[in-house]
Amino acid sequence: QVQLVESGGGLVQPGGSLRLSCAASGRTSSNSAVGWFRQAPGKQREFVASISRSRTAIYYGDSAKGRFTISRDNAKNMVYLQLNSLKPEDTAVYYCAADLDSYGSRLADDYDYWGQGTQVTVSS
Q1: What is the per-residue pLDDT for 39?
Q2: Local structure of 36: helix, strand or coil
Q3: Which residues of 85-120 are buried (b: 16+ CB within 10 A; e: fewer)?
């Protein structure tokens, strides 16, 4: 079992920044790749970024490239998503997820455990 808890969401103006955190716990959490996804109302869940345990495999979705940065601190079992230059279209619930079997994936179905999500709202 892996438990995931996201935090750091909130209301931010366009152009602003947020840092999302994902706290992982459980027997296999430190060995898992972790991904971030987001889902806006009425839209499908969208891949944002993923990072392998060793940080050697990092992937970004098209919407994240150049603006978002994923990182992790294995000693603290934490994964972070730095969101910069935020736009109103970044408004969504952001989820972190753990993938026990690979270095990370763009596909939501490949992930084994999910957090409850944290709301990010970008508005003036």
Answers
A1: 98
A2: strand
A3: ebeeebbbbbbbbbbeeeebbeebebbebbbebbeb
> Two tokens at 26?
């459980």
- Cα(98)–Cα(30) distance, rounded to whole angstroms? 10
Q: CA–CA separation, 36 vs 46, rounded Å?
A: 9
97 strand-pairing partners: 35, 114
Amino acid in position 13: Q
**What angle (nearest 5°) sits at the alpha carbon of residue 117, between those of residues 115 and 122?**
155
Per DSSP, 106 falls in state: S
Tell me the pLDDT tens digit for each residue of 62-102: 999 999 999 999 999 999 999 999 999 999 999 999 998 87
